[in-house]
Amino acid sequence: MKFTMKCALACTTAMLGTAAAAETMTIGITQNNVGVDSYQTTYEQAFIAAAEANPNVEVVVLDAGGDVARQIAQMEDLIQQEVDAIIIWPTNGEAVIPAVRKAAQADIPVIVTNSNIAEQGFEFVASFSGPDNITQGSRSAEIMCDKFKDMGIESEARVVQISGQPGYTTAIERAKGFEDRLPEVCPDVTLVETQPGDWNREKSQQVMEAFLVKYDDIDGVYAGDDNMGVGALNAAKAAGRDGIIFVGATNFAVGYEAMAAGDYWGSIYQSPVDDAEAALKTAIDTLNGVDLPFLNYFDTPKITQDNMGEFTKPVF
Amino acid sequence: MTALSRQKIGGVLARQGILIAFVVFMVGFAMANQRFIAVDNVFGVIRSSAILGVMALGVTFVVIGGNLDLSVGSMMSFSTIVVLDLHDKVGPALAIPLMFAMTLALGAFIGFLVGYLKLNSLIVTLGMLSAIHGLTLTWSGGKNMDIADKEGTWFAIFGQSSALGIPMPILIFALLAVVLSVLLSKTPFGRKVYAVGGNGTAATFSGIPRARVVFMTYVLSAFCVATAGLMQASRSMGSQNTVGQGLELEVLAAVILGGASLLGGSGTVFKTVIGVLILGFIQNGLLLVGLEFYVQYVVTWVIIILAVWLDIAAKRGRLWSPIA
């Protein structure tokens, strides 16, 4: 008796689920840490707005608050709710793999957004949507090299790098893209030292202060994002060291303003709105059976003082 | 005669072990890279350490009083975000006192819970660490906060100006250190803090209002945090919500490194200052030496343990404990 009841309930839910899927698709998302920075806050707003604009899509929006355990629990909740697809912004590239596998086993396609999970989990992932951090790093190297060529110092320039938090995929990939590309385009430019700024403006300012003491001759600074780049710029300003070329990544409002003021040379334009919309589109396409590549990168163009007029100021 | 002077030297060593450790490291780093002791660099390091230092001054009182304060990091983020946001809304002259009032209210709330309700300070401040972080995020909506007109305001004076050739953050840190040192060592309030932290029951029987003293240490700590937030905001004229994240442990490390006992009842403002400077100069020294950064975490730990060991060895007059 009890068993029948349970089955009746479960079967009805399952049928309802299938019936609903025919008309509208339910997509669940578990995000990394909304509210911890403006990028993620804007991403969430854009994601909800994009979902509301599409009458065929229902979304369940969750946030893990940076907590791996909570994200795994949220994945299980979404599997229980029998959503049609799950989008995950991993809190940790390794630890979430078992939860992703569980969803794949329940025949729910998983789309990874923004930063990918570790490679051993790829077989459980339908597709990835996000920025290509290695390309971003190489583009930053090209921006810097082009500027050095304009200035005629491409044969002697010396560069320091302030990278993101050690151990983070985004930080590692951007640094790799930059370090690999720079010697290809500007073989005579020297990267003298790399130190982490932990995505933190104050920390980067301290790192840059030490660099300025240590090296009398610095021509360029590459920072893993604009927040750190502006920290480094503040240090150079305070020390009265003019003429240093600053190039960042993920153009922030502060970076955009510093560019407008002529203090900061360039960056990579990465819009959280594009990021969110690309993730939703990838999920919808997957459900509609569209043939997608495994890695879906949205474009993150170069932005410098020369072409910044083509871009609106970032909202974060 | 020789015995006497040896004893004297021993006494000085015992009291200032941490200072000796500090001098040893400074000489070591200076030998590795001469620029380490360049005036610009020394000023730069102290200026960077000043924010952490100001927070550590307040926490010194809390720790001597026998409690912990793990909320100072997120409280500093709160102060920074609030003062930056209010700066553009009501102007700096009003934003600063408003921010101080709100931060002091948070400190008073913690002080009430720990002092009057006698709740465990570790639990209370650990909870406040996330609660205040939530408050900050609610206030800012998760966005970075930036002053719109960075050139047309006098707000930069607390973090970026200098007087008599000394950067303002250093002056604030030094002034606060002197005032709080006098408060701790020369006033009845200071003696009560030691008494409450050393032996709370005995303090109560001596007629010391234990709850009020504990309450005051948290208000004092919040005042220091608000000052640090003001310096931080003024220095970078903009901030992330997580600017103070993790600082609570660095602050605690500096205070304990300075020799304050986690069990309360001992410690001085001067030694906390030395603890802060050791941490600041280690970070800077390792950068100047150019060690690869994954290794830096380990080396930082080794240096801190060496400092603690030197301090203890100086106190007992030998390197190894006489009791096995």
From TrEMBL, chain A:
SUPFAM superfamilies: Periplasmic binding protein-like I
Stretches assigned to the Periplasmic binding protein domain: 32-289
InterPro entries according to UniProt: Peripla_BP_I, SBP_2_dom
GO molecular function, a single term: carbohydrate binding
Main location as per UniProt: other
Residues making up the signal peptide according to the UniProt record: 1-21
Domain of life: Bacteria
Entry keyword set: Signal
Gene Ontology, cellular component aspect: cell envelope
Pfam families noted in UniProt: Peripla_BP_4
Location(s), subcellular: Cell envelope
Family statement drawn from the similarity comment of this UniProt entry: Belongs to the bacterial solute-binding protein 2 family.
Name of protein: Substrate-binding domain-containing protein
Species: Sulfitobacter sabulilitoris
Automatic annotation (TrEMBL), chain B:
Membrane-topology descriptor: Multi-pass membrane protein
UniProt KW Lipid metabolism keyword: no
Pfam families listed in its UniProt record: BPD_transp_2
Membrane-spanning residues: 12-32, 44-64, 94-116, 122-142, 163-184, 213-231, 251-282, 294-314
GO CC annotations on file: plasma membrane
Entry's Gene Ontology molecular function annotations: transmembrane transporter activity
Record protein name field: ABC transporter permease
Phylogenetic lineage: Bacteria, Pseudomonadati, Pseudomonadota, Alphaproteobacteria, Rhodobacterales
